[in-house]
Amino acid sequence: MPIMQKLRDQTHIILWGLLILFLLSMTVGGLVGGADILELFSNSSRMQNTAGIVDGEKLEAIQFSKMLDSQLTQYREADQDIDDATMNRISEQVWNQYVHEILVGKEIKKFGLQASDKEIYAYLVDNPPQFLMQNEAFMTDGQFDYQKYLQILQNPQGNEWLGVEEYIRNYLPFEKIRSLITNLAMTTDEEVKEEYLTNNQKYTIEAAIIPMDVLGNEPIPVEEKEIRAYYSEHKKDYFIDEKRELEYVTFDVKATLADSQAVYQTIVGLKNRINGGEAFETIAAEFTEDPSGKQNGGELGWISKGQMVPAFDRAAFSAGRGQMIGPILTNFGYHLIKVEDRRVEAGEPQIKAKHILLKIKPGPETSESQRSTANVFAYDANEFGFAAAADSHNVKIQKTPLFGKEDRMIPGIGVLPSATKFAFSDKPVGTLSELLNMDNGYVLLRLSAVQEKSYTPVEKVTEQIRASILQKKKIEKLAEFAQDFYTKIDKTKSLAETAKLNPAIQFSNLPDVTLSAMLPGIGRSPKVIGMLRALQAGQMSKPIEIGTRMAILKVVAITPFNQTDFDAQKATLRTNLNNRKQMSIYNDWVNELKASVKIVDNRANMYY
Asked: What's the DSSP call for residue 118?
């Protein structure tokens, strides 16, 4: 009863609160196009820790981060550098794949295209998956054996096929719907012939290239009001997003001599186990740190002399058939190498080999020692100041350039979501971060500068705008010159003679070129190709804009259509054209699905 009484006593406060929210929603609604404030608060809460929403399906930030990390791991294991552009491209691929799976998955359910057990079995019979074809269990003498595969498929033991069945059960419906959509593609005989002509018919073309030089040095004025008008029209191009700058000190964790010796002792132990009778392939599958080696028992296949790094190469090619050699130290780590066979191919020696790789990494004691050093520095930085602590510890303070929250790769630091999150939190300049983990150590950050959202003032881009306006005016004047020149020339003469009328005009002769090739000095824009395709031998084009130049083209000769050659290529051309059309139709269909639903991409705010 006391609680209920208290609620009754505060009813007037609750009502006033609701009234205020109502009035605020009316006000904010007018500002943001009808949204009420309760919805805004709800959306803000709903998007917290969310990477995006696709047609009502929420993708949690942590789930997206795992998907992204999986792809990044593949790049790192392949020793590929991950720069900003690569990071953004991988993020786009992961996001687009998620959007595709959600939208197409809903269409699969709508049309009942799930895969039945009978369909899964039939698919496995007709289309052995590539990863199974590379599995030694289905090989005979190193080659995929379809009969062995079929026998194992028809007589499964235990649950070993469950993972494969589940993979096909998920994969097959997407293939079914893709086939339904792409079967709509049709390629006509006329299109096939046009493709043949573009790729095979030879043209001899003359070109008169008219450069800016023909205009002379007469000044072209650009007035202040034109600059202002251009700035207003293109103002969005001069928007500068919010940026941050960080000072930082890193503490790298590097392997020590003791760590290297520990890895050496471990790989010697593995060698002893193999010498004791355990299979090289089994040990490789369990222990190797070469990613591909875990799937194929360390198999490298046939390798030629000079194909591997020098230390590996020297050791491997010094071993006899059936011999295991190692540990061998390379920049990748310690290797055990087993040479299975040798041969000479095209005069070059080759070996068929397997290997086990153990990388030299910092051990627990090394990591803990450096972490302790970093923690002491972080404590001193908070107590006495960042600069004073750096001076005392004799470490270097480094500084990033200004970067945006969408720049997932922070210059100098790398991909570190926690650093981005710190930089764009509502902390004042001078704030220190917690000690953050990096791939190879630790980092302490200090927010050193904030650049708010703004537009570059017109005064700072005046010359840039002046150059753009001037270029546009020059092209317009050049087009007028080219048109006037065109009206005065004799269309029956060679352009070589015509070009002599003005020393600035450049003549070019292009013999025996196809319209599928890049035409020197002309390019192959659709406008150029379309114009040439419309001309008969002996005809001349009107002036056409090519970048910052104008050109007049003349078709001197065209090779005749070769029916016999066309008949020989027709089937292949039709297949290639149809494949392109199928891809285009499918992509258009997926894009229509995307346009028909609400998709919210919130990745830039998640700092994953």
From this structure: H
403 and 530, same domain (yes or no): no
Each residue's pLDDT tens digit, 283-339? 998 899 887 777 788 888 898 888 889 999 999 999 999 999 989 999 899 999 999
Please report, for residues 66, 102, 228, 300, 440, the alpha-carbon distance to residue 394 in angstroms, rounded to integers and kept in the order given: 38, 53, 52, 46, 20
Buried b (16+ CB within 10 A) or exposed e, 298-327: bbbeebeeeebeeebbebbbebeeeebbbb
- Same structural domain, 166 and 299: no
Q: How many domains is the chain partitioned into structurally?
A: 5
Report yes or no: 522 and 546 within 8 Å, Cβ to Cβ. Answer: yes
CA distance 409 to 563: 56
- What is the CATH number for 216? 3.10.50
pLDDT of 394-443, one tens digit each?
A: 999 999 999 998 887 898 998 888 899 899 988 999 999 999 988 788 99
User: Rounded to an integer, what distance in angstroms lies between the CA atom of residue 345 and that of residue 547?
Assistant: 51
Half-sphere exposure of 553 (CA within 13 A, CB side): 30
**How far is Cα 327 from Cα 334, in angstroms, rounded to an integer?**
6
Q: Please tell me whether residues 541 and 497 are part of one structural domain.
A: yes
Range of the domain at 481: 202-237+461-558
- To the question of pTM greater than 0.70 for the whole model, the response is no
